Structures are given as C-alpha cells and as structure tokens.
C-alpha cells in the first residue's frame, strides 16, 4: 500500500492494525513511507478469527478495524469544514493510480468494476451506451442485493460519513451484505444511485490479487452454460 499511496497527493492514510497494540513493524513502515497517516489498532475477537480449514472468504474481515477508522473520522472531522472522500483500501488489491484521482470527484458514492471479484473475472457496474448511467450490476453472487458490489469497488463522500453516524459494519450480517448494509446506512436505497467511474464502468482499475489462483467457480459454471459477460475494455 505504501508504494501505491506515496504516488498520490492530498491523501491521509488511516491504517487500523489488527492487534492489541501498535506494532513497531507497522509503525516503521508508516514512518518511512512519507505518506501522512493515522495509526490505530484494535484486535479481532478470538471468536471471529478464521478457524482451521475454513475458506478465506468464510468470515468477514476487518469489521472492528473499519468501524474504528469510521469513528476516527467522525471524531476528528467537522461537517461542512473538512472535505474529502473515503475509500476502504486493502493490501490484497492492486490499483491503477487513476482510480484515486477519479474518486476525488465523488458527490455521494461512486463505483467501478473490480477484477477477480465475486468468483468472476470482474464484477461491478454496467452503464448505458453513453456510459453516464448505471443500468445494471454484473454480479452472480446474490445479485438481488441492494448493492451487489465489492468493498474495493466504491468510494464515499466524507459528508455522508459525518451525517450518518451509525453507518458501519457488523459481524452479524449475512455473508455478502457488509457493503449493502453500510451503504443503506448512509441513506442510499440501491445501486441506481451510484456514480459510475472508470470510463463509465468500462475499465478495470482495481484488482483482487492474491498469491493463489483467482476464485472463479461461478464464472466457470456460467461459461459452461454459454453465458457471456457484459463488454469491458480491459477484458478479452
């Protein structure tokens, strides 16, 4: 993340470490990075940590950590005085720097496709021919969700975070509903209210990248049925 964020201007990196106290390793990385930062920490409860043989996606991650970051914003920023956009980044994602510049213009909540998400080669918004309005969401896992998108696929104007102080994340939510419940808590109703970025949702500027084969089970099932994904510039 440091090597990505150090290329950007006017950014504050809020890093929330999953630990009982800040570690010297993370502190050293932040101090050496050169990016303005806030270093917070809170441990994941033992009951919510992954168990042996559970798949990596089985339990929600970063629930308390994200909530602590939201709490810091609400305690330190003032509505109407501080301006900005919140993006929840992750160290298992790869980014085209362009997406950070595009999201700066977010009015409420912006969105874009994410590569290797939802067991598909890409998941996210599909726009009209003029690329200005979202007409549907390309998602196979629980597509009926109010916001069938990945955590890496949206940014929120800080005003919404400060206006809706109870919006956050919860271990008790059904799998796949963290994003939807968070955005509902910010006053949105469904994906039709999202603002399309990345050339009208035709570019993939964020990828889930892990040192493993991407999980594409649902996509392989669709391919066997002759299903073709919506067109996107960055996919053959």
Describe this structure in words.
The longest helix has 14 residues, at 63-76. A hairpin with a 2-residue loop joins strand 6 (114-117) and strand 7 (120-127). The chain has helices at 2-5, 24-33, 63-76, 98-103, 158-163, 178-185, 198-201, 217-224; strands spanning 13-17, 37-41, 85-86, 93-95, 109-111, 114-117, 120-127, 134-138, 154-157, 195-196, 206-208. The protein has 236 residues and is an alpha+beta fold. It has a single domain, classed as Spore Coat Polysaccharide Biosynthesis Protein SpsA, Chain A (Alpha-Beta Complex). The mean pLDDT is 93. The strands form four sheets. A four-stranded mixed sheet has the order 3-9-5-10. Strands 6-7-8 form a three-stranded antiparallel sheet. 25% of the residues lie in helices and 19% in strands. The protein is globular. The two termini are 28 Å apart. The relative contact order is 0.16. It is built from eight helices and eleven strands. Pfam families: Glyco_transf_43 (PF03360). This is Galactosylgalactosylxylosylprotein 3-beta-glucuronosyltransferase. Belongs to the glycosyltransferase 43 family. Its main location: Golgi. It is a single-pass type II membrane protein.
Kindly list the characteristics that best describe this protein.
single chain, 236 residues, alpha+beta, Spore Coat Polysaccharide Biosynthesis Protein SpsA, Chain A, four-stranded mixed β-sheet, three-stranded antiparallel β-sheet, 8 helices, 11 strands, 25% helix, Glyco_trans_43, membrane
């Amino acid at each position: 993340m440091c090597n990505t964020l150090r290329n950007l201007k006017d950014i504050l990196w809020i890093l929330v470490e999953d630990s009982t106290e800040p570690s010297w390793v993370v502190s050293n990385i932040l101090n050496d990075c050169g990016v303005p930062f806030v270093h917070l920490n809170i441990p994941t409860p033992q009951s919510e940590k992954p168990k042996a043989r559970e798949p990596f996606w089985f339990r929600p991650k970063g629930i308390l950590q994200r909530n602590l970051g939201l709490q810091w914003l609400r305690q330190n920023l003032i509505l109407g005085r501080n301006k900005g956009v919140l993006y929840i980044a992750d160290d298992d994602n790869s980014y085209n720097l362009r997406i950070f510049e595009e999201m700066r213009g977010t009015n409420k909540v912006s969105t874009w496709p994410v590569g290797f998400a939802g067991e598909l080669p890409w998941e996210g918004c599909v726009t009209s021919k003029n690329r200005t309005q979202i007409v549907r969401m390309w998602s196979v896992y629980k597509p009926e969700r109010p916001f069938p998108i990945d955590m890496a696929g949206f940014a929120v104007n800080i005003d919404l975070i400060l206006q809706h102080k109870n919006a956050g994340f919860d271990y008790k939510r059904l799998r796949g509903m963290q994003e939807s419940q968070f955005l509902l808590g910010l006053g949105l109703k469904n994906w039709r209210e999202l603002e399309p970025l990345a050339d009208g949702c035709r570019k993939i500027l964020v990828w889930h990248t892990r040192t493993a084969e991407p999980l594409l089970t649902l996509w392989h099932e669709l391919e066997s049925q002759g299903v073709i994904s919506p067109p996107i510039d960055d996919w053959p």
